[in-house]
Specification:
Blueprint lengths: L1 E6 L2 E4 L4 E9 L1 E12 L6 E6 L5 E3 L7 E6 L4 E6 L8 E13 L1 E8 L3 E6 L1
Parallel strand pairs: 2-11
Antiparallel strand pairs: 1-3, 3-8, 4-5, 4-9, 5-6, 7-8, 9-10, 9-11
Length: about 120
C-alpha cells in the first residue's frame, strides 16, 4: 500500500506563485517516476510535469518556463513550484507516483494523490 499526501494548493492572483508538495509513504521499495497532473472543470486530466528517478524532467508546453518540478528522494516527496500563474492554470492538481512496493516480493504500483485545488484569480 502506498499513500500520497498533497499540500500547498490555494488561491492566488495572476502572476503569483504557489508550491505544491506530495509525500509518498508505505512499503516503498523503489520510486521511479513522480509527476503532477491537473484537471480543470469540463476538461480531461492532463500531464503538467514529471520527473524520473535520475532527475530527468518533462513539462507540458503550457507550463514550460513557469513551473519547476523537483524531488527529494530521501523524503519520497515531489514538488511543483509554480510561478507566473495564469487564470488558465486553475484546476485540481494531482500527484502521481509509480514504482515498486515490497509485499513479500517487489510489485509495481501506480498511485494518485487526493488532489489539491489551485485557483488563479485574474
Amino acid at each position: 500500500q502506498v499513500q500520497l499526501v498533497e499540500s500547498g494548493g490555494g488561491t492566488v492572483q495572476a502572476g503569483g506563485s504557489l508550491r505544491l508538495s506530495c509525500a509518498a509513504s508505505g512499503s516503498l521499495f523503489r520510486i521511479n517516476t513522480m509527476g503532477w497532473y491537473r484537471q480543470a472543470p469540463g476538461k480531461q486530466r492532463e500531464l503538467v510535469a514529471h520527473i524520473t528517478s535520475d532527475g530527468s524532467t518533462h513539462y507540458a508546453g503550457s507550463v514550460k518556463g513557469r513551473f519547476t518540478i523537483s524531488r527529494d528522494n530521501a523524503k519520497n516527496t515531489v514538488y511543483l513550484q509554480m510561478s507566473s500563474l495564469k487564470a488558465e492554470d486553475t484546476a485540481v492538481y494531482y500527484c502521481n507516483v509509480e514504482g515498486l512496493v515490497l509485499v513479500t516480493i517487489p510489485r509495481p504500483f501506480d498511485s494518485w494523490g487526493q488532489g489539491t485545488q489551485v485557483t488563479v484569480s485574474s
